[in-house]
Amino acid sequence: MNDTFLNRYGQGRTLASSHHPAYSSIDSENRDIRLLELCPALYDDTIQLRLRPKKANEKTDYEALSYTWGTTTSPREALLSGTPISVTESLDLCLRRLRYADRSRILWVDALCINQDDIQERSKQVQLMAMIYSSAKNVLIWLGEWVPSATCVDQERCEKDFSKLLAKSRRINSVFAAYSSSAGFLRKTSQFLMSSALTPELYHSLGHLLDIILGPWFRRIWVIQEFVLAKKDPVVHIGLHCARWQDLFYAIQGSYYALQNKSYSEKTRTPGLDFFDLYLEIQICALSIWTLNMMRNEGEKNRSLSWLLRHSYHSEATDPRDNVYGLLGICHFSEADPIVPDYTKSLLQVLAEATVVEIIEESPEHYLTYFNSVPHEAFGPNVRTPSWIMSYARIDLEDREYKKPSLKSRERRHGSIRLSEDHQTLFTQGRYVGTISAVLSCPYTPNNKEIDDARSMAAKVYGFYHKMLKASNITPQRLYKMLAYNHRLDRGLYDFVTCLLGTEDGFVDMVVENGTKLLADHRSLMITQEGDLALAWHESGIEVKVGDIVANLFGYNIPFILRPIEFRASVYRMVNVASSEGHRSHSWLQLEAEQMDEYAIE
Question: What are the sequence ranges of the domains in the chain?
Fold first, then answer.
């Protein structure tokens, strides 16, 4: 990886020097922090700030700020203990809105309360984020200033309509507080909104709300733990507007359900509105804030690193390491060693540690979804990407169907997995299955318009069976069941067997007539010396070769395809996963404790 350190607060850090006199040392090991005193003044006055060290056992009320840093430096300097300091425009506007005219306000603001130029302090203070946000009297969410749209005719009226929308949601929340379930709130909110006329003004206000929720705060990885850890409903600030999170949440969710239930004719006859574009956007926003709400309401023990990574796949971080570090404050580690934020580690090392946690606490089935899909450029041109590193760029949000391993199984797996000091090599226990003796590489399945290519591929399958598979006592029935995976087995078996045992032309004609579904579908078909038949699980990736081995790793019977590294005994690179007979999707079993060999995977 490039040695240039990616600043965790790179987009919104202050321009303060590490020699700023306000930054006296604090004892992070004893959980000491700094608080920020926002001195009273009017909106246009210079921002005056003071840092106040806080001991872990000291009782002090404060409010923790959750905001987006932004990239533009404010033209107005603030005064920190009387010394000028630069802040971003986003933070400048936020502090002006939050400060009182007649009394100080005590805040915790990451960019100012942590000495950003002290890497060691930053790493230690990031480990205290859970304590900081969960101990705050309030969590304040700054979503930025009110931004008028190009369609705003009357700015003042527009903001009033927006305030009314939030006020309606707030009244509903207070009136129907007896409803304990979110479904009850949503039903009442949507009923209330449905009873209102579909006016351009209502939709215009909704449009502003959508612009806000599509903004950068909702994409920032760190807001997840800041939001989840709040002990009370967070307070949301949008320019002059202020509302509790639940008011904003049910305004969006209720609007979504209300629009869903409006008649088609009523939607289309509302003048001056593109209903369907608006509906699509509100659907996206409803999902975004619903996911945040779900993460806040989920029990702590269910918030595993894997679960959090799956549900934060849309979030962004200036420093890619923060896609993991930004979740640790709300992450539950049941058996694996907890990951500790350390900004001296490379992205590769952080992903390596996350991969080990995934394997120990969940399952190696992640390798069945995306295999070695971390782009090489993520680590720099001179770093070789380990073949076993998991990518968390895209993870399916659907709940996995496998049974989570027992604690005993996780403990056993924990003891059998370790990393090399440089995090390049993963050592694990495994069981040898076989060595690949023959491979048929199948290109992408052609469509019916490319008959010549289809016939050529079918001829290769025919030849592979008669030259390689038949000699290993592979029956046509076994080959059919392998190739016809995901297709009905009660159709075509007789024709397949008859034609495969007949002439090549007859087999080719039969395959083409079946729409080429009986080809290997651009996945390598292989057989081992031990007589096992398999397909490569993943369609793309490194081509499987003769001499690759198949082994069960990580305490599961998932058959990994490994390539021996030349001149290095028992050292391999992961190539693919085998879809072998009897080992179909979601039928993976945990192996019983038995004698296994050690494999070193690079």
Answer: 28-142, 155-215+245-297, 300-418, 431-601
